[in-house]
């Protein structure tokens, strides 16, 4: 029926995006020889050359390859549309498959779910657990999640999502450490996540950006509240989102030692959902998160003078 296979299209587009047979093979978790085999078979079936190949140079698209790439992208988009159409009939009564970040779920969404159920009893959330951000992103792209609400660094971490609110991610500590930090962070103990966890890798990158390769570690724990309470007790300084600090630091004991980065609360809603359901869920989530406080925590600049 077609002069190609779906796998050949997948391999062809991977080579186009990577401009390399080797990198395309790494991305698809196959051998470079397998990639070459698929491309040669595709060119043979189409009776034309798609790529220009020179040893040691990037793979380039020929004119026929450019034309075929445009049509291949259209073919893939149409395939995704067909899948969406099928799902609207096969899964119409299925609960909404959702992932909500732990802090957002426990502190904001879960307490408000009875209100959603009372006003919209036909909307049922099936909230699952995921091990990593990469898995969540893959499930979104594959169409295996209908709703995702989480803290991310930007839209690239959650494709097709909508910005709900900005959230600061900073380094926090008590006054004594804030003053000491004006002379540097090398001698200040840190409260970090367990070694090998996803958060540990992120914290290592942030420490490296601060010029710290071997931090003094006072405590490691996987729990956000444990790290915040340990910081309040003066055991060390810790990375955290401002919204989490606001929850556990009622007395305002912690200060921003260093401003690290700006995070975002972003919402993904699948177009598999009915338009009315999408609007209802986004309105509900925005109304719940609008109750978040925005207490501005004082920062301590390099010269040691306090910003109030």
Whole-number radius of gyration? Answer: 25 Å
- In CATH, the topology of the largest domain is named D-Maltodextrin-Binding Protein, domain 2
Number of domains: 3
Spatial arrangement of strands, main beta sheet:
4-3-5-10-6-9-7-8
* Alpha carbon gap, first and last residue: 71 Å
Number of helices: 11
How can the largest sheet be summarized? Answer: 8 strands, mixed
What is the arithmetic mean of pLDDT?
84
Q: What would you say the CATH architecture of the largest domain is?
A: 3-Layer(aba) Sandwich
Q: How would the blueprint of this fold be written?
A:
Blueprint lengths: L5 H13 L2 H8 L3 H15 L4 E2 L7 E2 L1 H28 L5 E5 L1 H18 L5 E3 L5 H10 L4 E6 L9 E12 L1 H6 L8 E4 L5 H12 L6 E5 L3 H9 L4 E5 H7 L6 E15 L5 H15 L19
Parallel strand pairs: 3-4, 3-5, 7-8, 7-9
Antiparallel strand pairs: 1-2, 5-10, 6-9, 6-10
């Amino acid at each position: 029926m077609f002069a190609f296979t779906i796998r050949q299209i997948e391999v062809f587009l991977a080579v186009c995006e990577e401009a390399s047979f080797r990198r395309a093979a790494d991305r698809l978790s196959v051998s470079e020889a397998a990639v070459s085999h698929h491309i040669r078979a595709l060119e043979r079936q189409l009776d034309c050359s798609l790529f220009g190949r020179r040893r040691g140079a990037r793979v380039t698209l020929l004119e026929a390859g450019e034309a075929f790439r445009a049509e291949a992208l259209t073919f893939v988009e149409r395939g995704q549309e067909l899948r969406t159409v099928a799902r609207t009939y096969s899964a119409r009564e299925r609960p909404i498959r959702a992932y909500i970040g732990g802090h957002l779920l426990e502190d904001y969404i879960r307490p408000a779910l009875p209100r959603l159920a009372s006003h919209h009893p036909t909307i049922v959330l099936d909230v699952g657990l995921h091990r990593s951000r990469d898995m969540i992103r893959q499930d979104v792209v594959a169409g295996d999640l209908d709703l995702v609400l989480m803290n991310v660094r930007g839209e690239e971490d959650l494709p097709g999502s909508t910005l709900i609110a900005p959230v600061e991610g900073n380094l926090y500590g008590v006054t004594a450490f804030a003053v000491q930090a004006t002379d540097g962070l090398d001698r200040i103990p840190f409260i970090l996540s367990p070694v090998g966890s996803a958060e540990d890798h992120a914290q290592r990158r942030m420490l490296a950006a601060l010029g710290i390769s071997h931090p003094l570690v006072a405590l490691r724990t996987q729990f956000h509240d444990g790290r915040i309470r340990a910081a309040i007790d003066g055991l060390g300084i810790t990375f955290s989102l401002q919204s989490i600090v606001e929850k556990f630091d009622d007395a305002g004991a912690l200060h921003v030692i260093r401003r690290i980065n700006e995070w975002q609360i972003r919402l993904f809603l699948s177009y598999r959902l009915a338009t009315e359901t999408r609007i209802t869920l986004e309105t509900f989530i925005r109304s719940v998160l609008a109750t978040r406080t925005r207490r501005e925590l004082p920062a301590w600049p390099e010269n040691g003078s306090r910003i109030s």
